[in-house]
Write a structure and sequence with these properties.
Length: 153
């Protein structure tokens, strides 16, 4: 069968071959992907007759979102260590040195994700002197550093 004929059957239309009419109830369409055609950045997965070919390449936005989620995770662990509840009236400050360009880029492009996930105001830099500092902690992430300060409002 030609690809156009297969497409018609998949749409529920009928085709005629050798003066015989066929519909989707008469034909079983099987698609096979040769494992040798799968690229190193792809993964073929599935069970029985259904398979999915996944493209595992990360684009820059995915990397930035992943970095931001890791930083959110570390902030949440710090809040838990301090026994802070989500309803506590606090602000979060994230200070990223200039040399930590990857983290700085990720956080600046994912500000909305930060705010939504932490459900608290997030400011960049160090808190002003005189603020009611609850805790400040340094973190390392992939050869870069950042610090988190939590202050009571």
């Amino acid at each position: 069968m030609l690809p156009e004929e297969i497409a018609k059957i998949q749409k529920g239309e009928k085709i005629t071959l050798n003066n015989i009419e066929f519909g989707n109830e008469d034909v079983e369409i099987v698609t096979k992907i040769k494992a040798s055609t799968v690229e190193e950045y792809q993964e073929l997965a599935g069970q029985s007759e259904f398979h999915v070919l996944l493209d595992l390449r990360q684009d820059e936005a995915m990397k930035q979102r992943g970095i931001t989620r890791e930083i959110i995770n570390r902030i949440q662990k710090l809040r838990k260590k301090l026994s802070l509840s989500p309803s506590d009236n606090v602000s979060i400050y994230i200070d990223v040195p200039e040399k930590s360009a990857t983290i700085k880029t990720a956080l600046s492009s994912q500000k909305e994700l930060l705010s939504q996930s932490l459900k608290k105001p997030v400011d960049f830099g160090k808190p002003e002197a005189g603020k009611n500092l609850i805790a400040e902690e340094q973190f390392d992430f992939e050869d870069e550093q950042f610090s988190v300060a939590i202050v009571r409002n």
